[in-house]
């Protein structure tokens, strides 16, 4: 019974705490933003239908999104994902060795507002850099791609599609984040600030608070929101992430960033749309042709990536309907 209570509590918290993208405040701002877009486009339909198109929210793909959200919620509550978060351990290890390298005793600097602001920016930048490379590796590595392909097999997108992630993907992301953030925190403590004291709003990192407030929930949606070519070289817009999910060959392996577009710009994976594009979501082969949905239900969503990855590693075909995995979207 305690586990059930914890799960219900976590579900309720996801709509309250500002660390969650699904917090009511962010969802309300999303509705307001969509209303502004609806007005700008000349009220193309009834607003409720524009906001909640039946063909999107009642699509079978969205049901799998909801199921994966609940599965990952439960795994988070029982501590599976927390086991891969060891940021303090990394920070302590790196800091201890940095202190050992200096001749004098460690004298931490005083915490000031300015240093806290810099530490906050460091956390955002390093976290986003880690997410970029996690994303990149899952697209480019044949053994990892099957676990991320679950996310890309979404044929429609709603805000909850952000949770359509295989647990293996989340575990790997958490490990990479722990290594990156732990090292960054140690350097910040050693060079900049006496304690990790980031600027927050309602307990949420102020940078991610703004990110969630200003359109993060539209990244996985049917609503196109572009920031324009200048800003889209710095920040990833909802439109750019929708392009990332596109089946079109020209969009493959583009826009891996979450907050910042600078990583994509630096490493040659940036795609800036000239204007609104008509997109189809889901998996495709190397020529951009749609492939059959491999994750049509919860069982397939959880098990098929293991089979697919094993086949890639061994060359042994287990599935009755062979899939040309090498031709799938990366």
TrEMBL record:
All residue ranges annotated as the Fatty acid hydroxylase domain in the record: 121-269
Cell compartment(s), UniProt: Membrane
GO molecular function ontology, one term from the record: iron ion binding
Biological process according to GO: lipid biosynthetic process
One cellular-component annotation, GO: membrane
Signal peptide positions on this chain: none
Swiss-Prot/TrEMBL keywords: Membrane, Transmembrane, Transmembrane helix
Keyword Transmembrane helix: yes
Transmembrane segments: 20-40, 69-93, 113-134, 170-192, 198-218
Chief place where the protein resides: membrane
PANTHER family cross-referenced by the UniProt entry: STEROL DESATURASE
Protein name: Fatty acid hydroxylase superfamily protein
């Amino acid at each position: 019974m305690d586990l059930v209570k914890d799960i219900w509590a976590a579900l309720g918290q996801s709509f309250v705490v500002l660390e969650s993208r699904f917090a009511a405040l962010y969802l309300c701002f999303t509705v307001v933003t969509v209303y502004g877009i609806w007005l700008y486009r000349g009220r193309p339909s009834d607003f409720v239908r524009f906001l909640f198109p039946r063909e999107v929210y009642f699509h079978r793909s969205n049901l799998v999104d909801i199921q994966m959200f609940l599965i990952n919620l439960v795994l988070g509550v029982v501590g599976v994902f927390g086991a891969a978060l060891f940021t303090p351990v990394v920070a302590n290890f790196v800091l201890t060795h940095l202190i050992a390298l200096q001749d004098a005793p460690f004298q931490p600097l005083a915490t000031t507002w300015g240093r806290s602001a810099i530490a906050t920016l460091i956390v955002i930048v390093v976290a986003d850099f880690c997410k970029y490379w996690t994303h990149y590796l899952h697209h480019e590595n044949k053994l990892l791609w099957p676990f991320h392909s679950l996310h890309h097999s979404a044929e429609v997108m709603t805000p909850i599609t952000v949770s359509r992630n295989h647990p293996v993907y989340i575990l790997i992301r958490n490990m990479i984040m722990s290594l990156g953030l732990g090292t960054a925190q140690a350097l910040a403590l050693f060079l900049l600030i006496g304690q990790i004291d980031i600027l927050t709003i309602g307990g949420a990192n102020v940078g991610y608070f703004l990110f969630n407030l200003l359109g993060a929930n539209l990244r996985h949606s049917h609503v196109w929101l572009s920031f324009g070519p200048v800003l889209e070289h710095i920040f990833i817009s909802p439109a750019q992430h929708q392009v990332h999910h596109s089946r079109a060959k020209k969009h493959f392996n583009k826009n891996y960033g979450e907050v910042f577009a600078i990583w994509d710009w630096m490493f040659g994976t940036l795609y800036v749309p000239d204007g609104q594009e008509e997109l189809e979501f889901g998996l495709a082969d190397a020529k951009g042709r749609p492939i059959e949905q491999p994750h049509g239900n919860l069982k397939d969503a959880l098990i098929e990536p293991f089979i697919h990855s094993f086949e890639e590693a061994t060359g042994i075909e287990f599935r009755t309907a062979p899939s040309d995995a090498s031709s799938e979207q990366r």
